[in-house]
Amino acid sequence: MLTVLARSRFAEEQILPLASARSAGSQLPYRDQSLAVSLLEPDAFSDVQLALFSAGGSISKTFGPQAVEQGAIVIDNSSAFRMDPDVPLIVPEINASAITQHQGIIANPNCSTIIMVLALAPLRAFGLKEVVVSTYQAVSGAGQKAIEELRNQQVDPNLAAGPSFPYRIADNVLPFVDCFVDGGHTREELKMILETRKILELPELLVRCTCVRVPVERAHSEAISVTVERPITVEQARSLFAETPGLVLEDDPTSHRYPMPLSASGRDAVGVGRVRQPEQRSDQLDFWLSGDQLLKGAALNAVQIAERLHP
Amino acid sequence: MLTVLARSRFAEEQILPLASARSAGSQLPYRDQSLAVSLLEPDAFSDVQLALFSAGGSISKTFGPQAVEQGAIVIDNSSAFRMDPDVPLIVPEINASAITQHQGIIANPNCSTIIMVLALAPLRAFGLKEVVVSTYQAVSGAGQKAIEELRNQQVDPNLAAGPSFPYRIADNVLPFVDCFVDGGHTREELKMILETRKILELPELLVRCTCVRVPVERAHSEAISVTVERPITVEQARSLFAETPGLVLEDDPTSHRYPMPLSASGRDAVGVGRVRQPEQRSDQLDFWLSGDQLLKGAALNAVQIAERLHP
User: Fold this and answer.
1) Based on CB atoms within 10 Å of each CB, which residue in A13, B184, B205, B225 is the most buried?
2) Touching check for B205 and chain A: CB below 8 Å?
């Protein structure tokens, strides 16, 4: 978040890092300065104009409304408020105009959802009917400790699992992200289904989703198959993707150009490629995405929302 | 292949390993013996009843028909004859009866296809209409050298890619298996589409497929979404899967029981789980598979075909 702020239009503003007692008092590097971390307290927001929350749902639920009461606008990275009808859920390239409806809190969507909707949004022009998505999600989505877990397991095949994942993640894939909920879905899958409908303003959109953790450090990938109402060609889809802000078209199989975590990591733009169509089906389109879930999937999107608030 | 033969009903038969001049003369361990590798020559099959080919399409095309002329029945692991209308394409649990139509050559299907059709076959009872599949394919599908490549990259983040994959595969996923063909699909994807139709005897079945290589040593996984003509429940699907030979139902999210490469590696049965349904869609079903592509996806299926030939 600080790295993204440092290259945003807020770079020169005063930044106040807040954290629990465990981290309060420590220093964080920011540009050529060092920022002192203050304690997250109920009255910590009295001088704050804009508060970026990224410490989990329960912290957001407790301190978010307090920050609003003290006059701050909250941009929340947790899932606490995303499906609240009074809270705009924003991907600026898609629904920036909905920001103005905020009542103090604006929600930043789920990382896999942001990456996907960037490519789905332009397809609404063809009458988006059904989406089937399988994800290939990096371990860093489970936190810094998960990266160390993967690294340690990669060099030691006998290392036991844990604590970030229930099984070894090196040399394995897990059809499980977040936690299981009723009906057999994971919460991550429900987020992708419900948040996509809200962001795209398509409450009836059929979204089928399988969320999978893969032994990759950074950047999520997604295999997406859509069905639309009106005929579309591969060339039309490629042109649409190429001109969509936030996306970069990487689609030249003959020279092995396609999106992958290796090239998406550390990059703002989400890569889209492998655009193709089942034979004789002009109502269907298949493609592949890779995007840095820590940048566009999280911190970058949050800061972009802030930039739209204060243009 | 030898490991599977050693536990088959052919264990006590005479085994004659054939290879190119590079390997001829070497010894291969087999049970408590050592087998001398002979040179693969045009007249090498004169005393052979059953020939298992697993050396690539061009070797099969050259030597397969010669073996048949000399009186052998050929079970071919390559893709050379799979779509030939005169060649049965067999997964014994599904279409063993088609074996009898052979004219000397029987084809063993693509590894990802075998794993998938085991679960699709019982769903034909509900009128299988459409299949969307995303694969998570292990590097051993690209050969022994690919495993070493992954291992070396895992311990050295600066190691350059190659020769098995065009980019690093450690910490990466590649939406690319085999090679690209016209229309933007990979050949692996076309195999899954066309072979599935032939094995299931559903020539019109719509199959949409994205084949992806992941940094896993062994066992392929697949996220599958199907649409059927007649209503199905999750419980019906679970019961069907549980009683299907070749499958094992691993579906208990609350105790973190689901298929994954870690548990599927080295096991004959293909694991199926994460069975679920979009809300209010009794014509749709989503599930997840993991299966050892070197066993059921290749050697085991070939030897099972042989066992059906000589019951």
Assistant:
1) B225
2) no
> CB under 8 Å to B188, separation ≥6 — which residues?
B110, B112, B137, B177, B178, B211
Chain B residues lying within 8 Å of A262, measured CB to CB: 167-168, 171-172
Complex ipTM more than 0.85, yes or no: yes
| CA separation, residue A56 to residues A26, A76, B185 (Å) | 20, 9, 41
Supply B38's token pair: 């002979």
Residue B42: both structure tokens together: 């045009």
Q: Phi/psi of residue A154, each to 5°?
A: -65, -35
Task: For residue range A126-161, list pLDDT tens digits in order.
Answer: 999 999 999 999 999 999 999 999 999 999 989 989
Query: For this structure, is B220 an active site residue?
Result: yes
A197 touches chain B (CB under 8 A): no
Task: Let me know: does A249 contact A242? Beta carbons within 8 Å.
Answer: yes
Dmax (CA) of chain B:
63
CB atoms < 10 A from the CB of B197, how many?
Answer: 16
Long-range Cβ pairs for the range A301-304 (8 Å, 24+):
A301/A90, A301/A91, A301/A92, A301/A108, A301/A109, A301/A114, A302/A1, A302/A4, A302/A52, A302/A54, A302/A75, A302/A77, A302/A108, A303/A1, A303/A4, A303/A5, A303/A8, A303/A10, A303/A52, A304/A92
Write out pLDDT tens, residues A7-22: 999 999 999 999 999 9
